[in-house]
Amino acid sequence: MKVHGTPTRTIWLTDDGETVEIIDQTRLPHEFVIARLTDLDSACHAIKAMLVRGAPLIGATAAHGMALAMRSDASDAGLSRAYEALFATRPTAVNLRWALDEMKALLAPLPAAERAAAAQARAVTLCDEDVGLNEAIGDAGHAVFRDLWEKKGRPDQFNVLTHCNAGWLATVDWGTALAPIYKAHDAGLPIHVWVDETRPRNQGASLTAWELNQHGVPHTVIVDNAGGHMMQHGLVDACMVGTDRTTATGDVCNKIGTYLKALAAHDNGVPFYVALPSPTIDWTVSDGVAEIPIEDRGPGEVCRLWGRLDSGETAWITVTPDGSPAANPAFDVTPARLVTGLVTERGVCPASAEGLAGLFPERAPAAAE
Ligand code: MRU
Known about the structure:
alpha/beta; 18 strands; single chain; seven-stranded mixed beta sheet; Rossmann fold; 13 helices; binds 5-S-methyl-1-O-phosphono-5-thio-D-ribulose; Four Helix Bundle (Hemerythrin (Met), subunit A); 2 domains
């Protein structure tokens, strides 16, 4: 997608092949800063401190992190060390494990002398593949929107609510939940997006709003608690969100607050779709609530906010009284029964074992039984 008119990805290799560059997402929307990843430690830090975030981009960064690690130590011990260090950065998005497994499967059989070059080449193709998957999700989701819009009698405005940031900033390019929105907007569908602010880190207010602004998509930021009210008053035609891990049975883990939006959508008859590339499916898990590890990011993000002061400077402010404890579960699980459909690179399916097995028969032997 474009930043100030220039096509930009979230992660790329510099022309000399020596360095990986990323957009430092902790500085958006007020500052656009490029950061450099030069070794395993800087890649781990970028994921852990959320300079990069969003399930597909976490996986892509881990792949590049593995490649950077191979430059300084391509031994078997170095490979294991890099895998473990990157795996420990964030627990919920399964794309991290998927990308690391891909890299390990490629690198482990190779002689050490060949690993650095092979790792870098695979990290680059893994990023390119991510772009292709997301663009295909965009086409499938655009068809869903167009169908709903036509069934509603082609209203002048088609309102989609989204949560967190599942746009191009959360992937290498295009995004998952926002890819259908970009496709629909570009094709002339009169789409308008309700952007959940998404406390505590405000990925909606900071990142989704910034992206939509850059692309010229009409949108309005709302506080997290407003969605139910909007749905009761007929102001939401569809919800489209992303996911960090979807079980083989269609339970959807996503940013905290997604479950409440799904409940409100269910109560009001609003279609609730989840967009995901196949690396986000965890085929080993069937009960999302019981089995998916939920990241606890600590109280700081709840008690403090980063933003721009009237003076133009950026600063952290504290919003809670000194001494009040805060809890910060970063994700929740929406049971499959609340999900209208899963939008994947292979098309749309019901959120169920049968639905996923139908689209990905080669990956779902257990689910299909
Ligand atoms: O904590 P974050 O910002 O990494 O959480 C991101 C989300 O929850 C996204 O909705 C999810 O990763 C899907 S991204 C295409």
